[in-house]
## 1
Amino acid sequence: MLKVNVGGVLIGDGVPKIQNMCKVPITNPEFEKRLEKFAENGVDITREAVETEDDVDKLKKLRAKWKGKFPVPFVADIQANEKIAMMSLEVADKVRINPGNFSRRFLAEFAKEAARLGKPIRVGVNTGSLPAKYRGMPPELAMVKAAGEYWERIKDCADVSVVVSLKSSNLRVTVEANRIFRVNFPEIPLHVGVTEAGTVRQSLVNSSLGIGSLLAQGIGETIRVSIATADPLEEIVAGRYIVNAAYELSGKRVVFPKVIACPACSRANYNVERVAIAVEKMLLKYNQPVEVAVMGCFVNGLLEAKDADFGFSGGRGEIIVFQKGEVVERFPVADEIEEKVVEIAKEFITSYFSKNNVS
Ligand code: SF4
């Protein structure tokens, strides 16, 4: 597998990298705040549309402000503007284009410039923008043909790092296109996603099945869960959970933090929902595996979550804290108990990751 370095983050190193989109114009002051927030919350790579010279200028200024490096590696998403595509190579860590929107002449110049600057390219192919000559074919085959042709065209011009994506809003087409592409081009890293995946519930179902089934087959070096109606950080949480689930399904150890939370029936003696949400939020900034359990009662709590690295279980008038199935602390249930549980979780998580050399 070829490795692609995007602003210091390596795509193709064996752990899928999770991407999101900023979802706010670059010239909007909120853009800058979002990049900083993403950096604090474990986003691997982010992307946004670069449409105008003002956008490029703003990126240049921000990059200079942050001493030449974005807080999170930044991918410029280019529609069809040649000048903006070229300018973006200077400022972004990677540039995403659909080569079908550009001439062969421009593509050659673009590839050479990317190679000169050492910037990777994402070749993005969607069913909505296939070359006319492939339109009569099954869409998954047409996407593979187009992506393979673009990749070869680029590689003939310059020694540049390339990631390929083949996306459709149709699950079968997406999964098949990526599977066939991997068989034909096993060395090329794939950015996997289901495009226009919809609102939260629809996207989570589509992305879990689409991205998850590819990851379970070992396909997908970087992913993005596209959600129309959620904060961009939700795309990261969803992406990590999909990777973890796909890895578990294929018999591998999870690679991101995991929260095991019981459904909190009437036996729960503290607010499981609130604690589980707080724990999930705390874990967002860490990219390493750890399993934290939040269980409502002793009936199932300790036994069902005994393999978790750390956890809570309700008890008889108390809350039990355990580590790998061993009870390490107990405290009585009282008013404001959630604050205490959240505080203990924070201490454990900080000490767990500092012991494992993660800051
Ligand atoms: S662990 Fe206890 S509180 Fe949670 S769902 Fe199971 S029985 Fe109910």
## 2
Amino acid sequence: MASIRKFMALFPNEQSCRDYLFAARWPRGFICTKCGEMRYCLIKTRNVYECANCKTQTSITSNTLMHRTKLPLRYWMVTLYWVASGQRCSARKLARTLQIQQRTADRLLRKVRLAMHKSEGTPMLDFWVREKRSAQQQPIVRRAMLMMYRKARSFIRKYYGKRVSNWNRLYYYYEYRFRNNNSHNQIEALSKLILGACTTIYTLNEYGMLRERKSAS
Ligand SMILES: [Zn+2]
């Protein structure tokens, strides 16, 4: 994958990020969350899309991982890219590159790990919950799970050290799984991550419109 600097050159300003995210969020064009209308007008001063029918205003980031973000979209794109590139991305490094506070970088990374989880489907949450139930499992399934657990644990240890809170452990686990499944194709990993970050919970209207259009075509 190209270097971070090259990637940043692909997204030189906020508008380029917005165009990209628009296409990711509404691949078949804008749909109003409330009424399903497709005509809209863009209110440029605040970058919100206003439905031509019911006047509901939606921003490109609402109901996504970036919901109500005050950070420039470029920061998000860079973080997504960095994580997808397979390199270790620490909050400290990210803070230095983007020239932001480490706390902000920390929050960014945490959200991006959530995108990793979203793009990989259901996590094996049971995996982390130590329950006696595992006794009922087939020995072979149990063995496979133990092996994965061990691998995830050594990944977390190597990247994040021994002292990791349970809460963070879960996030790092998402990261482990995502990296594990996508290490072969980093470009694909990036688009998965971006889609994971953009996927909104479709309202009935959005979903209905998608279905209607699918069956019509
Ligand atoms: Zn509407």
## 3
Amino acid sequence: MSNHLLIKDIFHETNICGVVSLRRNISAPNRTPTPASVAEQQLCGGGVMSGKLYAIGVGPGASDLITVRGARTLAQLDVLYTPAGKADAQSLAHRIVAEYLSPNTEIRTYHFLMKAEQARKEAVWDRVADAMQREVAQGKQVGFITLGDAMLFSTWVSLLARIGHQPWLEIIPGVTSFAAIAASSAMPLAMENQTLTVLSCTSPESELEQALRTHDCAVLMKVYGRFATIRSLLGRMGLLDHAIMMSDATLPTQQCWYHLDECDRQLELPYFSTILVNKNWNASR
Ligand SMILES: C[S@@+](CC[C@H](N)C(=O)[O-])C[C@H]1O[C@@H](n2cnc3c(N)ncnc32)[C@H](O)[C@@H]1O
């Protein structure tokens, strides 16, 4: 595709916004812009800055679960930053939004090195945040897409920490995966004065156990790779009848398990797998 650039190509573009002014934002993301940096932005945009950055949560997987605002915004973008899929395949986020994009939108593909050491990850976040700000300063409508909701367990938050809360930034919420899973499995998340905790299964088991003891309801994300541990924990706590698990929610490959005790301990789960627990609801049918 001619409008498809890899992120490394972006850094070969030249523009009159110096790296210095952009780095200033990165090292002090929450600082009020100085008159100097405002002036630099006006210079780059040819007037008061008209460029805008949109971080768009695209929902859990089904294309029609994106918000109306998200779809309308996608249709008018000059540039879209999208995560790279495996082996150069289109990412899930990109597939979700493909039908809403204008053919004129340039696609910038980035790869976030999820398993790399921290310094290498941070270098990529720095470069992507830097590149997006530079394009906004050129007056462009720039989009960044992220699965589910942008503010929950998303790389977008690492970029936000660099960019800061700016007048030219709009964050468009998305349907988070656990809302879609609750709806699809008919498993309530929480009611009345019950408490709900959202956890990553990458946390130490003792912390997960403590949280499960404290709260009535729980969302256990990132269960991929830790299913045997989590299943044993739920069994020890007598919660197996109050838990469901769903993979690839709202996608054609969606699977739901209502009897976790009957699942093979070595079950190979997709990365997009989540468990819901509700102590006040009998989940097994
Ligand atoms: C990096 S987090 C992204 C969360 C996302 N921002 C959200 O709002 O749902 C990835 C985790 O979200 C959950 N997840 C995301 N999409 C899912 C889906 N379609 N079905 C089941 N779980 C999903 C899984 O627990 C997965 O390991």
